[in-house]
Design brief:
CATH superfamily of the largest domain: Response regulator
Number of helices: 12
Helix content: 40-55%
CATH class of the largest domain: Alpha Beta
Shape: globular
Number of domains: 2
Oligomer: single chain
Structural class: alpha/beta
Distance between the termini: 129 Å
GO molecular function: monosaccharide binding
CATH topology of the largest domain: Rossmann fold
Function: Involved in the high-affinity D-xylose membrane transport system. Binds with high affinity to xylose.
Keywords: Periplasm, Signal, Sugar transport, Transport
CATH architecture of the largest domain: 3-Layer(aba) Sandwich
Radius of gyration: 33 Å
Largest sheet: 7 strands, mixed
Strand order of the largest sheet: 2-1-3-4-5-12-11
Order of helices and strands: HEHEHEHEEHEHEHEHEHEHEEEHH
Subcellular location: Periplasm
Number of strands: 13
Protein name: D-xylose-binding periplasmic protein
Length: about 375
């Protein structure tokens, strides 16, 4: 009897142990099942979410006060968005401290690339350094940033712009007294335009055919400052001036106002550049001799394409290098086009840069 009871106890104990072991195994398998799928299930959706986020390009602009830069803004934004990326745009309107602060804002927004149109070529080196510290590359647009490790520079051949201006005017006035009205001395492009102009003028100066009787920068590129410079040139030379080369169409507008006041508009050849509507209209009217057309469509499309490539980490093959005082900057430079009364239709109007109605104002 006692043996039978002992046997029963042993059987019951064995059953309890088997049941307990089985329960523990289920709990363990349930626990591990809960842990494992969590990491595996969420890994792919996170990767997809990251991959589906569009690239973000920051665009720090010097100014939007001039018509030309409004075109750049609109066309660049459209081109970037057409490539599936986003663009955040801030303009400082000629304020160096504000441009640096705005660039810091763009950097803090987690952009993938910073594109800069510098107001002050030297001061904006600070922007480049700040971006590089957090691993963001910087592309200089149209104007070169000086003394900084810029990753890429995209623009027109600005030295060639000056050459085209000088060639057009020297064909009309091979000998005489010249005035040069420059742009902002803080803008590297202003120096490149001037370099191109004097590359053409210097041999004629050396021969004694041309004398530059006035040469002055125009602060912040404003027509008012250019007009004041031209008034000073006219006064210093008793209106005895044969030709004027102005650094852009805005400064050419100031020059022509000063000439108009003396009854000389249309009598003295004046060169500008940028193909601004007002400048092109003056070419039609005969008060401005020529302008230089820089197809902004081509520049913005190329810049957008390169910006997205850099943001993706792709390699860019640049065909030129520009020294910015610190490094040889990889550069892509597009070709400008000289425009006068004879080829406005085939260039500016054919490209849709300005409409025929706007250019001719019903003159045709």
């Amino acid at each position: 009897m006692e043996r039978a009871i002992s046997r029963c106890r042993l059987v019951l104990l064995a059953l309890v142990l088997i049941f307990t072991a089985a329960s523990c195994e289920k709990v363990e398998s349930r626990t591990s099942a809960k842990k494992q799928p969590k990491s595996n299930q969420h890994a792919k959706p996170i990767e997809k979410a990251i991959a589906s986020e569009p690239l973000k390009i920051g665009f720090s602009m010097d100014t939007l006060l001039e018509e030309r830069w409004q075109k750049d803004r609109d066309l660049f934004k459209a081109a970037v968005e057409a490539l599936g990326a986003k663009v955040e745009i801030l303009a400082a309107n000629g304020d160096d401290a504000l441009q640096i602060a705005q660039a810091e804002t763009l950097i803090s927004q987690g952009i993938d690339l910073l594109v800069v149109v510098p107001h002050n070529a030297e001061a904006t080196a600070t922007i480049v350094n700040k971006a590089h510290k957090v691993g963001i590359k910087v592309m200089a647009y149209d104007r070169l940033v000086k003394n900084a490790n810029i990753d890429l520079y995209v623009s027109f051949d600005n030295e060639q712009v000056g050459e085209l201006q000088a060639k057009a005017i020297t064909e009309l006035v091979p000998k005489g007294r010249y005035v040069y009205i420059g742009g902002a001395s803080t803008d590297n492009n202003a120096h490149l335009f001037k370099k191109g102009v004097f590359k053409v003028l210097q041999p004629l100066i050396d021969k004694g055919d041309i004398t530059v009787v006035f040469d002055q920068w125009s602060k912040d590129w404003t027509p008012v400052n250019a007009q004041a410079n031209m008034e000073a040139a006219l006064k210093a030379n008793n209106n005895n001036i044969d030709a004027v080369i102005a650094a852009n169409d805005a400064t050419a507008g100031g020059v022509i106002k000063a000439l108009s006041a003396q009854g000389l508009a249309g009598k003295i050849p004046v060169a500008g550049q940028d193909a601004e509507l007002a400048g092109v209209q003056r070419v039609v009217d005969g008060t401005q001799t020529m302008t230089v057309y820089k197809p902004i469509n081509a520049l913005t499309e190329k810049a957008a394409e390169l910006a997205v490539m850099i943001a993706k980490g792709e390699h860019i093959k640049a065909d030129r290098k520009m020294n910015n005082g610190k490094v040889e900057v990889p550069s892509i430079l597009l070709s400008p086009i000289a425009v006068d009364r004879q080829n406005i239709d085939q260039t500016i109007i054919a490209d849709g840069f300005h409409s025929r109605e706007d250019v001719y104002r019903k003159k045709q």
